Amino acid sequence: PEELTLFYQPLFELRSGRLLGAEALMRWTDPEWGSVSPADFIPIAEERGLIVSLGEWALAAACGQVRQWETDGRPMPGRVAVNVSARQLEDDGFVDTAIRIARENGAAPARIELELTESGMMRDPDRAVEITQALAAAGFSLSIDDFGTGYSSLAYLKKFPIATLKIDRSFVIGVPGDENDCAIAQAIVTMGKQLHHEIVAEGVENRAQMDFLRMLGCDQLQGYLFSPPVTADELARMISEGRRLSLD
Ligand code: C2E
Ligand code: MG
Ligand code: MG
How many CA atoms does the CB half-sphere of 107 hold within 13 Å? Predict the structure, then answer.
C-alpha cells in the first residue's frame, strides 16, 4: 500500500566520525489518522497476523533502496538495518524468504543487517541458533536490537553469530546522570566487546550521552542528536555532502 514507506536513520562511527549505515524504519500515513508510529501499529499488525507480510515488504523495500542508491552512483556506506519481528523468525521459511527477497531486489545480503530482538530469539533459543547460523551463512549481518530489555540467556548469547549489539534507548536516556543506567551500559559494552561484537547505542539525544558512550568504547551511535529518521533522498544527500560527527 501507498501509505507505507521506509525512513532511514543514519548511524555514525565514533572512531572516524563517518556516516556508516542506516536503520530502515516503517512509517504509516493513514488518510484518517495521519502519521501513525510503528510503536503503535506494529503490535496491532502482530496481533492480526499481518507482521510477516509487513516485514517482508520492509526487507524488499530496503533491498530495493540499497540497489537504487548504488544505481544512482551514491552507494550507502556500511549496511542498511531492517527490523525483524519475533513472529517472522518463527516462520519455517524465514531464511529462504530473506535470501529470495534480497536476490529479487538486487541487494547482496552482506549489505543488509537484520535486527532481531532478544525476546524473539529467546522464545526458542535452540531454533534461533540454527536460524541465525543459516542467515549468517547466507551473508546477512545480524544484530540484537533493544539489548538489555529482553531476557537474554548469556549462555546462548555466545552461540548466536551476531555481529552487533544495540544498547536499548532506555539505558541511553539515563547516562551519564543515572548510576544504574551507567553501570548497565558499561556492562553491555564490556561484555559485548569481549564477545567481539560491535556496540551501537541508540536514542542518543545530547552531547553528554555521546561523550559518555564514547568513553565506554561504543563503536557507533544513532539518535536525534545526529539525525532523525529521514527519507531515502535526504539520506543520500547527507552521504554526498559527507555528513560526519563532530568529535571535538
Ligand atoms: P527500534 O528498532 O528500536 O528503532 C528505534 C526507534 O527509536 C525508532 O522509533 C527511532 O525513530 C527512535 N529513535 C531514534 N533515535 C531516537 C532518539 O534520539 N530519541 C528518541 N526518543 N527516539 C529515537 P520508530 O521509528 O518509531 O520505531 C519504533 C519501533 O517500531 C522500532 O524500534 C521497531 O521495534 C519497530 N519497527 C519499526 N520499523 C519496523 C519494521 O520494519 N519491522 C518491524 N518488525 N518493526 C519495526
Ligand atoms: Mg531496530
Ligand atoms: Mg531498538
Answer: 30
Closest CA to 48 of 87, 1, 15: 87
Distance 237 CA to ligand 3 centre (A): 25
Cα dist from 97 to 49, 94, 205, whole Å: 17, 5, 36
Residue 202 CB less than 6 A away from ligand 1: yes
Q: Residue 218 is placed in which grid cell?
A: 561504543
Whole-number Å distance between alpha carbons of 201 and 222: 6
Q: How far is the CA of 90 from the centre of ligand 1 (A)?
A: 21
Q: Residue 107: helix, strand or coil by DSSP? A: coil
Residues 54-108: tens digit of each pLDDT:
999 999 999 999 999 999 999 999 999 999 999 999 998 999 999 999 999 999 9
Atom 12 in ligand 1: residue holding the nearest Cα: 203
CA angle, 204 as apex, 191 and 132 as ends, to 5°? 45
Bridge partners of 141, per DSSP, are: 113
Return the sign of the alpha-carbon dihedral for residues 81, 67, 12, 38.
negative
User: Which secondary structure element, helix H or strand E, spans residue 193, and what is its range?
Assistant: helix 179-194
Q: How far apart are CA 56 and CA 15, in angstroms?
A: 34
Q: How confident is the model at residue 30 (pLDDT cuts 50, 70, 90)?
A: confident
CB 145 less than 6 A from any atom of ligand 1: yes
When computed from its CA atoms, the radius of gyration of the chain, rounded to whole angstroms, is 17
- Cis before residue 228, ω within 30 degrees of 0? no
